[in-house]
Structures are given as C-alpha cells and as structure tokens.
Give the backbone structure.
Amino acid sequence: MCTLTLAWQVFDDAPVAVAANRDEQRNRPSEPPKRLETTPTVVAPRDAEAGGTWLGYNESGLFVGVTNRWTDADLAAERSRGLLVRDALREHSADAAASMVTDAVENHEYAGFNLVLADAESAYLLEWDGRLLTRELDPGIHVVVNVGASDAPAIPVENAERGQEQAADAAEVRTALLPRPEEDSDGWLDRAASVLGDHEYGVCVHDNGYGTVSATLLSLGVDGAVRMAFADGPPCETTFEAVDAAEPVDN
C-alpha cells in the first residue's frame, strides 16, 4: 500500500476514519477483507503470498495500517511487514501495539515501513529505516505515503525525484480531505473515495505490472459501529463494496 489517509478524532461519530490505496505488483495474490482471527476478532484483507495484511481493525476498535518506506538504508527484510501488521492487530490498544512493535524490531529484520496505529484514545506513526521513530499524532487529517507523513516527509537520496512527487501528492490529498463544516465520517469517506481514484492527485497508479490494486474505506464508530468498504481493483474503475466480516477465512 502506498497511500494511507487517517482522520483521527476529527468526527464525533467516528474517532478513526481511514481511506487507503494499496500499490503492489499486479500478479501478487491477495484476498479481500474478512474475519481473519477470532481471539480477538480481526477483520482485514490478506496477502496470500506471505500471509500478512496491509491494514485492518480489531474488536477493540484498533486500526493498523502500513506503507512501505523508501530509505537509503540497506535493510535485511527477513520478515514480512504484513506479518507485523497482523501481530499488532492482536493487541487491545494503540498504546499496546506501539510497545509490541518496539520489541518486534529488536527481534526481527524488516524492510522500511511506516506503520499507523489508531484507536479512540491514541494514534501513532511508527517510522522504521533501521531505527524506529515513534510519533504521537495530533487530532486531524494525516496522509502517509512511501516517504512518510505529508507534514514531515523524509526524501531518500536514491529516489529523490519520485520522493518529492509523492510528498507533493500527499500534501494535495490532505488539503482536499480537510473536513468540511458539519461533515460526518460517512460524508468524508464518500469524498475520500473520489480522491483515491482521481488521477489529479497522483495516488491511483497505473504502471506496467505494478500499480494500485485495491482501496479501502473504514470508520470505527464510538458505539462500536463499523463501516468498511473495499474496491478489489483500482478505485478509478472499481466499485467499493461493503465488507461482510461474518465468515472467517481459512488460514
């Protein structure tokens, strides 16, 4: 996944709202969101190659999502970042997940990542480039791409031009998705769906064999209500379908 937009403590009806595009090799197999685990209940799509996921939520109202992080560091990448997301989704809170990730990077080698953790009380961005930087997020709109957050991008020397382009695109997405007066989370997600598929913002990607392969809309309400919709293809040409998490997948 390459673009993750989080609205945290912005809307009274849903402290966590997310709109995200996943960019990947088009031939990498994956499964749409379902109930992956039951203790706790975890709902997420699944990377069929490595067994992990790129985003999801659990019954405690915890959201976890990851993007790749472009870095000049030479990292071993021995363990899938998607498995780290799945590990984090077993925690009961964003605070507990942040602590778990801090321990995990001491014990396993990962490629660079930007990991977003959010529940009703706390939100974090964990940036890994061989060192772990943990940022507490303020209430508001946050856009995370391969070069980090739109308000503090880290442009790698080896990919400077594309990195600058990504940072600019992320800033434009954030501006477009600033909340409007009287807007609720449903209205914001509807607008976000359009932005995710609008090529003007540069976040719906179509390269040879690589590009935006899916998109997700998610809100976690204060009363336990959940809205999740998934486009199993580029959001510029694929309809978002409501996710039915009633049946678990075979693992």
Observations:
- Residues 169 and 188 are 19 Å apart (CA to CA).
- Residues 3-242 form a domain with the Penicillin V Acylase; Chain A fold (CATH 3.60.60.10).
